[in-house]
Specification:
The chain has 312 residues and is α/β, with parallel strands linked by helices. The protein has 10 helices and 12 strands. The two termini are 27 Å apart.
Amino acid sequence: MKDLKTDVLYCAPGAGVGHLVRACAVARRVGALGLSCRIATNSTYSEGIARIVQCKVTLIDSSHWKSQARELASACGACVVVLDSFPFGIRGEWMGEAPPGVEFVYIARRLNLSNYLDAAVSDGTESCPRIDSVIVAEPLGADHEAFISELNPRRILTLPGRIRLDLDFELPPEPKELAGMLAGGKTWMVVHSGPESEMKVLVERARKDIEERGGGELAVVSPLEHAATGVRWFEYFPASVFYGRAVCVVTAGGYNSVAETNLAKRRIAVPFERRFDDQAARTTSGFDSKENGAQAAAEFIASMIVSQARNL
C-alpha cells in the first residue's frame, strides 16, 4: 500500500453505487477545502465512478474487507476516519482498539438498527470504538437517536439536507438516443442498480404512472442491462444529470436515490426490503429539503482536523 497518505479516510462499504456516490460527494468537498481524502470501498463500480468524479478510491475485495479496512487506515495515516452508515463498520471491523491518533466521525442515515447490531456485535467480546463525532444525514428512528446518545460523541451535526453529488466535473457524453427521448418532454426514467426482480417492480410502477397520466415513453438507466423488462436501456453515470428533463423519475428508496431525485420535476420512490437500510421509513419521513448537506458535512470533518492540529 504505497502513496496512500491522506488526511481523511472515508470508509464506504457497500457493493452498490449509493455509499460510493455519497462518499464522493463529501470527498470532493473536503478536497476543495484543501485537505486530502481517500475513499475505501468494496463497490465493483468504484473504478469507473472514481475516474469520472476524480476521487481517490481504494478498492478492497468484500472477502477481505474486515481485515484490510483497518490495515488501510494505518497505512494512510489519516487523522480522521469517516464511517458511513455503520458506526462499528459493516462487519464490525472497527470493534476493539482503534488506531492511535485517529478520530472517528459516524455519518448516520436511516438504519435497521437491531439488524445491524446483531450482525456487527455478534459475540460482544470486544469493546466498541470511540465515536468522536456524529453527522446526522437524515431523520433517524427513535431507537437510532437513543443509540447515538449512548455513544456520547463530543459533537453532533444535523445536516440541513441530504448529501448529494454536485455535477461540477466533466461529464461523459450523453447517449444521443436518451437525450433525444428526453428532449421530447414525454419520457419517464427508471434508475436503479439493483437486481432484475426489483427493476421489474420499478418498471411496472412507471408504466402504471404513464398510463394514469395519459401516455408517454420509458427509459431505464442502470449499470446492468435488464433485457427482461422490454424497455430501452442506457448505461450512464451520473444519471442525475437527466432528472430535470424527465417527466418523472422512478427509483428505489435508497438514500442517494431520494437525495438526488428531490430536484426532479416529479419522483416516485419505491421502498425495498433491505437488511440494514430502512427504505420504507425514509420514503415516508417527509424530509424534503432541497439543500445539499455535502458542504456542511465536509466543513465539519475539516474542523476536526483543524482542532487536532491546534492540540498538537
